[in-house]
């Protein structure tokens, strides 16, 4: 996850932040390290986008071609999902190593919850993958990640399409609650299997579900804060244009 736009508190800073994605021009580098980091992040975002797009495509294709039946959607999408979601561990590494300016806590929380769903729920208890919530979860995840990585990748080269910027700060209003609701449903569906398998893990899963109570507001509020700053900046840019 490359560096997101930092929003200063001043009106001028907000206006600059809002228009940052609409500027075109080659990035500037002051050292070889910056150049290496640029190509690393550019490659990471491009590969991540392609991976998540493949997951989105295979999931949607299976769902539609099966006549809106969700039982066997995981047959085609599961392998790609495990690979690209496991690679998201680099999100945490990038954040904690300072390669990007992403919040360490929120990034770690989100990646940890995804790992729990993929490996701690769907992998251990494959029966839940035939539930409709698996399809809605994967579609919500993959579509949100396609928007995010496309935005970050184009932002790195200094040219973000206006439509992509809009999607970055608005699509999560639907996709994030849909993803969280689907995750909780899958955890609930897995509880009987976990209870038979290991009683301690059964209670761990309950504790994980309860963690969503404080965790969801933290992550969602963070994204709402980013959206508010973007909208404030967009408004200021429009106002400045009116008086030019």
UniProtKB/TrEMBL annotation:
The chain crosses the membrane at residues 35-57, 77-99, 172-194, 200-220. GO terms for cellular component: endoplasmic reticulum membrane. Pathway: Lipid metabolism; fatty acid biosynthesis. Its main location: endoplasmic reticulum. It is an enzyme of class 4 (lyase). It is found in: Endoplasmic reticulum membrane; Membrane. InterPro entries: Tyr_Pase-like_PTPLA. It is a multi-pass membrane protein. Keywords: Endoplasmic reticulum, Fatty acid biosynthesis, Fatty acid metabolism, Lipid biosynthesis, Lipid metabolism, Lyase, Membrane, Transmembrane, Transmembrane helix. GO terms for biological process: fatty acid elongation; sphingolipid biosynthetic process; very long-chain fatty acid biosynthetic process. Its EC number is 4.2.1.134. GO terms for molecular function: very-long-chain (3R)-3-hydroxyacyl-CoA dehydratase activity. It catalyses: a very-long-chain (3R)-3-hydroxyacyl-CoA = a very-long-chain (2E)-enoyl-CoA + H2O. Catalyzes the third of the four reactions of the long-chain fatty acids elongation cycle. This endoplasmic reticulum-bound enzymatic process, allows the addition of two carbons to the chain of long- and very long-chain fatty acids/VLCFAs per cycle. This enzyme catalyzes the dehydration of the 3-hydroxyacyl-CoA intermediate into trans-2,3-enoyl-CoA, within each cycle of fatty acid elongation. Thereby, it participates to the production of VLCFAs of different chain lengths that are involved in multiple biological processes as precursors of membrane lipids and lipid mediators. Belongs to the very long-chain fatty acids dehydratase HACD family. PANTHER family: VERY-LONG-CHAIN (3R)-3-HYDROXYACYL-COA DEHYDRATASE (PTHR11035). This is Very-long-chain (3R)-3-hydroxyacyl-CoA dehydratase. It comes from Lichtheimia corymbifera JMRC:FSU:9682.
């Amino acid at each position: 996850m490359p560096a997101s736009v930092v929003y200063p508190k001043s009106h001028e800073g907000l206006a600059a932040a809002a228009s940052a994605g609409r500027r075109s021009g080659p990035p500037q580098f002051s050292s070889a390290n910056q150049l290496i980091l640029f190509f690393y992040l550019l490659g990471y975002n491009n590969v991540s986008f392609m991976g998540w797009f493949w997951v989105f495509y295979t999931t949607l294709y299976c769902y539609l071609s099966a006549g809106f039946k969700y039982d066997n959607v995981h047959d085609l999408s599961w392998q790609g999902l495990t690979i690209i979601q496991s690679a998201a561990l680099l999100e945490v590494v990038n954040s904690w190593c300072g390669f990007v300016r992403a919040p360490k806590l929120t990034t770690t929380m989100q990646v940890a919850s995804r790992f729990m769903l993929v490996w701690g729920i769907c992998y251990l208890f494959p029966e839940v993958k035939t539930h409709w919530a698996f399809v809605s979860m994967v579609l919500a995840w993959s579509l949100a990640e396609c928007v995010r990585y496309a935005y970050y990748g184009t932002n790195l080269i200094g040219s973000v399409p206006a439509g992509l910027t809009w999607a970055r700060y608005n699509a999560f209003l639907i996709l994030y609650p849909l993803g969280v609701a689907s995750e909780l449903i899958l955890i609930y569906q897995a509880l009987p299997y976990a209870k038979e398998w290991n009683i301690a893990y059964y209670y761990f899963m309950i504790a994980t579900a309860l963690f969503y109570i404080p965790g969801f507001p933290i992550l969602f509020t963070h994204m709402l804060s980013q959206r508010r700053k973007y909208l404030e900046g967009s408004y200021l840019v429009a106002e400045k244009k009116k008086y030019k």
